[in-house]
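step 4 of 6: structure.
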Amino acid sequence: MTEVVPRPLKQEQLPASDEIMEIAPGVLRAQLPISIPGLGHVNMYILEDERGVTLVDPGLPEKSSYEVVKKRLDQVGVPLKRVHSVIVTHSHPDHFGGAHWLQADTGCDIITHEKFRVFWDPSEPPDADIDDVEMRSKPRMPWDAPPWGGPGMEIPWKRRARIAVTRKIPRLLRLPTPTVRLVDAQHFRFARRDWVAVHTPGHTADHLCLFDPEHGLMLCGDHVLPTITPHISGLIRAKDPLNLFFESLDKVAAFGPQVKLALPAHGNVFSDLAGRANEIKEHHVGRLQRLRDACIELGRPATVMDMSTYLFSPRSQGGMADSETFAHLEHLRLTGEMERTESNGQYQYILKD
Ligand SMILES: [Zn+2]
């Protein structure tokens, strides 16, 4: 009998450490616990200057998480009222969660990219060039059937109920209200440095990295992670999310050796940002090839769910896997390699001759 050996955890999956590390002068990394499949913690960076501190990505919108934010500040001897700014790299709850409380308790600024908006916000206009405006702009619940005709996400009823209530009464989710919305290439000063905003859509449409040219630091959120690849959803309101992500990977890779240290939202800091960005791009290029090969192997029009089994292991199958597969298939369609038809309410893809 073979023994089942559990796979070692990746660094992004390790539980939050209580240790606070100095990454660079005036830049500390603390970790907050999160309960999201595949992730064990989120890094909250604490950057100090003459006005007090700026926090980057202060964890989930849960009281217990906010208690840890306060504990971490306590550990480094910073009174809560010294927080003057919170930077949120993108509109996912493990990044924006604590921002609302921090603003309520301290009156701090909340800094995001100008497009910052949670994905179900009906006021968000879809990109003008999207050709499936109707399908991707309809407000939907995560468990609703997606446009490609597969099953919705499997979400336990307790969480469903919570999501349904917070959709009706969004203030229960304690969504942050940004006070500063940065545009690409805008300069912004905090932590005794001038930072440059780098808009990096892909993982979300509003993803923001910040670059400190003087010390070569890049706050890179979920855009580039050290050992896992960020989820690319086919459901963000952009025409070709995977292409956006490719462009954003090239964009940070173009900084080359100017970046001495990348500060990701999960896992450890790392030095070769360009190398890692290229590696992630290669990973997706490989997946595109696997889909072309799968098309030939199947020899018939394939649904998103058929194709998902070629990209993801059985234990990873489900709504998120399908959504990422859809992003890849749509990329191949929009670049002219595949054709999409619809049959029995399901999208089907075939390679063009
Ligand atoms: Zn994220």
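step 5 of 6: annotate
 - The first helix runs from residue 63 to 75.
 - The chain has two domains: 11-118+182-282, 289-351.
step 6 of 6: archive
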